[in-house]
Amino acid sequence: MNRVTRLVISVVVIGLLLPSYLPAQTQPAQQEFSADKLGAPTLRDPISVYNNWSSYDELSDNIPLTQELAMRELDNVLRLRKLGVRFDYYMMDAFWFDPNGGYRTWRKPNWPDGPDAWIKKCQENGIRPGLWFSSNTLVKINAAPQWRDSLNQKGWAMSFFEGGFLPDFMDTLQYWYDHGIRFFKFDFVDLTIATPKSEASLSKEEIIRRNSEALRTAFAKFRAKNPDVVFAAFNGFGGVLDSTSYPFPFKDPVDLRWLEVFDAQYSGDPRPGDVPETNFWRAMDIYSDHQVRRFEQAHLPIERIDSTGFMVGKTGTIYYREMHAWKGALILMMARGGWVDTTHGNLELITDEDARWFARVQSLFLHLQSEGRIKSFGGIPGEVQTYGFGALDADGSVYVVMNPAQSVARVSMPLLSQVQRPLGQGRVLFRDAGFAPKLAGDSIELGPGQMAVVGYGKYASPAFDLGIQQDVVIPRSIRPVPAEFQTTGKGVIQAAIPAPAGGDLRLIMQQYAPDGSLRRTWAGGPPSGMNMGKVFLLEAAQNGKQLPIHQDYDKIIWSGLSWAAGEIRAKDLHGGEPLTLTFRSTEKDPVTLKGTLYLVNY
Q: Which residue range(s) make up the domain with 302?
């Protein structure tokens, strides 16, 4: 069976399965497209990519990309490969280029010798190099002379359907293909751009149509000439990425015709969603899960969605994550089913022992991805509903499940095909520390904010155990604590309660706009952004003293936040005595705050 036939079948199967796995409200298809075109650029098999973004960061931090950094990460790619980790591509992300070179020359002094040594070393080791481009917006690059008759009135972006930009851009891509580049990442596209003449005479819809058709036609010709190339679509090609509380269907719809020329479309850089979690990194997991579910609802095949959900490193773009809670993030990235599996960041942080574990996860999920039988199930993450991703082959199945709620919940794991055998006896292969999930047949009980991996059939063997994630600790019990919060000033609510005894007190604040929607506050990124612990303040006082509150959201968060969460330890509370809780937001626009409390035991 060839890959086009496989894709036609999978599109039909997805269409049949969607009613069972997705809520009734889905985004209607915006355009007609041909199944053979949809299948044509699809990867033959899942690929594993290293992307060096987040080992440097020149947007929300000030750590530059240099030849030394890029080659150091290549050395670590090769180290991890020797330990069993698979990497097929190395993507050189943003800002490798000279601002005045029209994407033909590399930036000096950061790249004194240009890219040749990097390209050669990749090729000598069987790794295909890739390059990032800002599609038609001038992000840290100046308009080349041959682009100027395509510029818009404000001079910051180029039209695709007018002037010399698109022909030169395609010549540039061919130039780099001829120099060994095999993966192209297209970011920051703006399809509303036109020259001043067209801005004055054409509607916005017509400009978008002409830009889209011009770019798709050019990309299709390039792919026909260079059939082994990989194209990935990033910011600007549809969808809403800022939060997990937006209404659906997308305000900015996804044009499915882009699937004729792109192998994958990304669903948003890692950021905290709008579901409060005391472990900040778990809130990021839920964001990426939610985005994949929404893009799937917009009718993208799950294999074509790049969740971009796994970044480790020391930069502001990932909130100085380093390796915190990385195991769950890796499992989820691969379990979501996208066929472009990308590792971002500082690979030197991954020890040899970590790499061997990494390789086991890769081996399991790359196999299951290649079977083409990964499906989502359950509710929508951003709506605080339990959910998961399931995969199967002829020998068994693996489910990755999540409970985003502030309560213990049971998650049901459905059969993933009509011919799948009953699940039978399962095994918990991986979980967060603390709460011990209770597995019973085809359902599992999870603690608040907990994820787990469950295997059935062949995968219920101890040989597939992946251990416990020790740096995400889930309470063994949780119950709501009654409290009536009153507004006491602009952006301030307060409650007075008798302090509960017998556990830690969990505090959660959420921020809403006047229309009732969750409202994120953006306080900037490094180096000048404000720590969210100073934007959202949780305060507790008892017997005239301020109590310490343990919190994980107190970071510089370029992508904004709509909530704060923290805990007062039992040892710091005097049970039964009056406790005053004050929650504050420094958001300048009008907002409403909501506070909730829980008693938790670890």
A: 3-31+50-364
Contact 357, 327 (CB under 8 A): yes
Q: From CA 306, how far away is CA 571, in angstroms rounded?
A: 44
Tokens coding 504:
């830690």
Higher pLDDT, 30 or 3: 30
- The CA-atom distances, in angstroms, between 419 and each of 19, 114, 477 are 18, 55, 38
* 432 domain residue, yes or no: yes
Q: Is residue 495 part of a domain?
A: yes
pLDDT in tens, 442-479: 999 999 999 999 999 999 999 999 999 999 999 999 99
Distance CA 495, CA 197 (A): 60
Residue 190's Cα: distance from chain center in Å? 21
| Neighbour count for residue 104 (Cβ, 10 Å) | 13
For residue 584, which of 566, 559, 557 has the smallest C-alpha distance?
Answer: 566
Residues forming a β-bridge with 481:
597
CA dihedral (15, 16, 21, 25) positive or negative: positive
CA 360 from centre of chain: 22
Can you give the C-alpha Rg of the chain in angstroms? 25
Same domain for 594 and 449: no
Of the candidates 150, 138, 133, the residue with the CA atom closest to the CA atom of residue 234: 133
Number of domain units in the chain: 3
Percentage helix, strand, coil for the chain under 3-state DSSP, each rounded to 5? 30, 30, 45
In order, the DSSP letters of 471-504 are EEEE-SEEEEE----EEEETTEEEEEEEPP-SSE
CA neighbor of 413 nearest in space, from 378, 362, 459, 383: 378
Look up tokens 């985005």; give the residue. 291
The verdict on residue 45 lying in a domain is no
Q: Which residues contact 291 (CB under 8 A, 6 or more apart)?
A: 239, 241, 244, 267, 268, 307
Domain shared by 24 and 142, yes or no? yes
d(CA 310, CA 448) in angstroms, rounded, equals: 22
188-218 per-position pLDDT tens digit: 999 999 999 999 999 999 999 999 999 999 9
Beta bridge partners of 477: 601
Mapped onto helix, strand or coil, the DSSP state of residue 80 is helix
**Threshold 0.85, pTM exceeds:** yes
pLDDT of 216 reads 98
